[in-house]
C-alpha cells in the first residue's frame, strides 16, 4: 500500500519519504502527568515539520484540522521548545466563533 501523495514529504536529502518515517520513537516516562503526555504520530510529525520549517523564516502559521488531531498539544510543545525569543498568540476557534469575538 503506497498511499496518497499527501502521505509523503520531501526529506532533507530531497527524497520522497513516507510520513511514518518522521515519527520519533515514544518512550513512556513513569510519573509524567497524563495531561502532559504527547505520543508522536504522523499528524504531530507533519505539524512539527511545518513549524520547524517556517519559524526560522518568521512566517505566520495557521494550523487547521479535525478536533482531537493534536494541533494545540503539538504547537504548545513546539512553542515551549523555541524559548522566549518567540511570541505566540493562541486562539481556539470553532464553527461558532464570530468576527466580533476574534477582535476582543
From TrEMBL:
One Gene Ontology term of the molecular function aspect: dynein light intermediate chain binding
User: What is this protein called in UniProt?
Assistant: Dynein heavy chain hydrolytic ATP-binding dynein motor region domain-containing protein
Which Pfam family name is an example for this entry?
A: AAA_7
- Gene3D superfamilies for this protein: P-loop containing nucleotide triphosphate hydrolases
Locate the coiled-coil region(s) and give their ranges. Answer: none
> Which Gene Ontology cellular component terms are annotated?
dynein complex
Q: Would you say which domain of life the source belongs to?
A: Eukaryota
Instruction: Give GO terms for biological process.
Output: microtubule-based movement
User: What species does this protein belong to?
Assistant: Chrysotila carterae
